[in-house]
Amino acid sequence: MTYDQINGELVKEIIYRKKLDNGLEVFFLPKEGYAKQYASFSTKFGSNDLKFSKNGQDMVEVSEGIAHFLEHKLFEEPEGNAFDRFAALGANVNAFTNFNITAYYFTSTDYFYENLQHLIDFVQNPYFTDENVEKEKGIIGQEIKMYQDNPQWKVFFNFLKGMYREHPVKNDIAGTVESITATTKEDLYSCYETFYHPSNMVLFIAGDLDKEKVFEAVEESFHSKEVKEIVKIQKSMPIEPPEISEALVEEKLSVSTPLFNLGYKDTLVGMRGMELLKKEVTMRLLLDIIFGKSSPLFEKLYDEGLVDPSFNADFISEVDYGHSIISGQSTDPKLVKNYINEHISQLKETGVQRDEFERIKRKQIGDNLSFFNSIEYTGNSFVSYYFKDINYLEYIEVLKSITLEEVQSFLRKHFDESKQVLSIIKP
C-alpha cells in the first residue's frame, strides 16, 4: 500500500497520509504504547459558511447556525441514535462546530475498528425528516437561550460584534432562534451534499495501531459507498473593512465581578500556509511576553487587585480574519485597558528585551512539545491547520526560527488603539 509520510523531526512524530479515490484525505499518527485510540472525521464547514456555490451553480445563501444544526442532526439515525452504538462498545463520541470546521470524533481503548466503522457510517448517512428537523429546532432554541445567559459566551460574542462589521464571525455559532426556525430539511440536505463530500473532509486517526490495517479498514469502509463526483465549492465572504464596529460594548448579566475581553483587529489578512503560521506563532510569542503570568504588566495588574489568574491572552489567526484577545475578570476593566495601553506605548519605545524574548521562546517550545502527549489535541490541531495549508508538525520549528526583530515589527504593527475593542459584562 502506498502512502505519503509527513515528518516532524523536532517533535519526533511521523504522520502517514493517503488520499482515497473519492478525494478523502486520511492521516494516521502512530502512538506506540498509548492505551487510548482516537479518530476524527472533519469537514471544512463552519458557522461562517453562509453563502456558497457548488460546481459553478448559482450562489446559495443559508441561515445562521446551519452548520451547528447539521452537526446535531447527523447523530440521529432511523433506528435510534449514534451515541448508543458507541456507548455499547465502550467508546466516547462527540462533535463540535466552530467558525470554520465541523468535527465528529471518538476515543476508545478497545473495538477501535468497529467504532471507526460507526463514525464513518453515521457521518456519511444523513437522516433528515420534516418531523425530526422540527423537533430539533426546539432543542437548539433552548441551547441558544441558555448561551444568551452565559456571561463568558456573551462577553466573547459581544467582543466579536464590536470587532467585525461585515464578517460572519460576529454571528453566534448556533445562530438565532429566528434563523433556526427558518431552516428546512432541504436546507440541511443542500449544505450536507455540498460540504460533506469526502473531498471536502479529513479523517485523522491516532493510537497504537498497525498503519497497514488502519488504511485497509478505511478503504474497506468506503468501498461499498458510491463514489460521487468530486465537489468544487466556491465560498463568498463579505468584504470586511479594516475599521472596527464598536470600541466599547457593555452589557449587564448575573456576575459577581465584571468580565472583559479586550483585543485588537488584525488587518494583515489573506495569508495561507507558512506565512499564516509564522504570523500566528510570532503574535502568540509576543502576547506571552506582554501579558504572560511572568510579565511585569501581569504582576502590576495582579498586585493592584485588578486581575486574577484567569487573565489570559491569545491570537486568533484565520485566512480571512484575525484578532488578539485578552480576557479575564476585573473590578475595573476600563482601568485595566488604560494600564495595557500605557504599557504597550512604553514597550514600543523601549522594545522587547532580548533575554525576555529568549526566555519566553524557550517556555513556549516546552509548552508546545508537551501538547503532543495528547492525541486529541494533536488530532484537532493537525486538522484545523491542514485546512489552512499548514503542517502542524512544523509549528515548533517555526517557533524556533522567530527572531526578536520579527517580534518588534509585530509589536509596532498590531497594537493600534483605533483597532481596539473592549467588551464588558457588568453585574
Automatic annotation (TrEMBL):
Pfam families: Peptidase_M16, Peptidase_M16_C. Residues 184-363 form the Peptidase M16 C-terminal domain. InterPro entries: Metalloenz_LuxS/M16, MPP/UQCRC_Complex, Pept_M16_N, Peptidase_M16_C. Residues 64-176 form the Peptidase M16 N-terminal domain. Gene3D superfamilies: Metalloenzyme, LuxS/M16 peptidase-like. It comes from the Bacteria. This is Zn-dependent peptidase. It comes from Alkaliphilus hydrothermalis.
